[in-house]
Amino acid sequence: MIDLSTLISSVKKNCNISDAQYWGYYSICGLLLRLRELYCFEKGIKLWERINHAEISDWISERENLWKGLEDKNFEDIIIDENVYSPFEVEKINAELEKKNLVYGAGYGIRMKPSFFLADLIAKRTVNGHVVYIAGSEYARDLAYYPATLQDNVIYARSDTTKVLLWEKFEELGVRGPRSPVTYAFSKYSVTPEEKPTEDIDRRVSEIALSEVETYIHHEIGEAFEGKKLGEAWDDLLIDFSGSKAEFFARGVKDLLSDTSERGMIKYIIENQKEGSLGFYIVFLSGYRKLLFPEIVKVFENFMESGDWGLIEDTRETGYERAKGYAERLISLNKEKPDKAWVSEYIEKEMLGRGKH
């Protein structure tokens, strides 16, 4: 028998330990936004419900005190039916949990922050040779959340997390223009700027999340496909650049490579003519991916008028070749120069500077 309350408690504790050790890597605005979302999640507050500012302020103070007591703690083992597992033995843990329609995730994200979640299992299937778990309502999560992650040959897709990301954009809908990407994207799901946050909209955004999570699955498939081409040299590079701007640039390059891959997200969107997904791709395009792939934004403006998927395909190929070139140069630089500080500085000054033009 699985003691769900004990399991949730163990996963939550590991989430808190990770947050306690890594919260300082977030910007102040980014941290406050994630704390707000975590507060709503833990308190069961619906996305469309109002938040009591005094109560969330008290909760944040309590969370900061909790973190202080966990900064030097080790992660807790996961116990299932008297069997003890390391919190990163994901495959073994899920072999037990999926019998009860549960799914567990554990891995490392940006800056190698450990990230954990526990959720209901909606479905398990195989896509392009990858085992895919689709997670539904979540019981535990940390500050870092991703709509989908890849671990070995397994993809974990999280509809709850995708819904949170979409809801943030829904809240912007009323202040965006009629030709904005976010207005276009939601319109393809029959959601208009006049809509107000209600329980019905909450349900409809949940349905959108289930559709959109499919596109994130194909980002991870592209990630795996391109990762095999790049090999271990790329993993070494990320470790060598850990904590620098160069690491974020390299991750942006890899994300663009994955998006534009022949097995990636944009190709999937094109083949299935998912207009809403294309709109949301533009909406969420940011950071170095946007810097490296400016063409897609202008082409999308034309696409909204023409509906010409050939334009998107041509632009995808352009983005892929650029990302591939940057990835090859990064690997070459890392092999040529044993002084990692020099490589990181070179990337920040030369490659990033060049990317701005």
Topology (SSEs and partners):
Elements (H helix, E strand, L loop, with lengths): L3 H19 L5 H16 L9 H16 L9 E3 L2 E3 L4 H8 L4 E7 L5 E14 L2 E12 L6 E4 L2 E5 H12 L10 H7 L11 H32 L1 H9 L4 H16 L4 H8 L2 H10 L2 H6 L2 H12 L2 H28 L3 H16 L2
Parallel strand pairs: 5-7
Antiparallel strand pairs: 1-2, 3-4, 4-5, 6-7
Helix pairs in contact: 1-3, 5-7, 6-11, 7-9, 7-10, 8-14, 9-14, 9-15, 13-14, 14-15
Walkthrough of the structure:
There is one protein chain. By secondary structure, this protein is of the alpha+beta class. The chain folds into two domains: 142 residues, no CATH class; 148 residues, no CATH class. Helices cover 60% and strands 13% of the residues. The chain has 15 helices and seven strands. A five-stranded mixed β-sheet has the order 3-4-5-7-6, with helices on both faces. A two-stranded antiparallel ribbon has the order 1-2. Strand 6 and strand 7 form a beta hairpin. Helix 7 packs across helix 9, helix 8 crosses helix 14 and helix 9 packs antiparallel against helix 14. It is globular. The model has no long low-confidence stretch (mean pLDDT 92).
What can be said about this structure in brief?
The chain has 357 residues and is α+β, with helices and mostly antiparallel strands.
Please state the structural category: alpha+beta
Main sheet: strand order? 3-4-5-7-6
Number of helices: 15
Mean pLDDT: 92
Number of domains: 2
Largest sheet: 5 strands, mixed
Gap from first CA to last CA: 59 Å
**Rg, alpha carbons:** 21 Å
Give the helix proportion (percent range).
55-70%
The total beta strand count reads 7
Low-confidence stretches: none
Order of helices and strands: HHHEEHEEEEEHHHHHHHHHHH
General shape? globular
How much strand content do the residues show?
5-15%
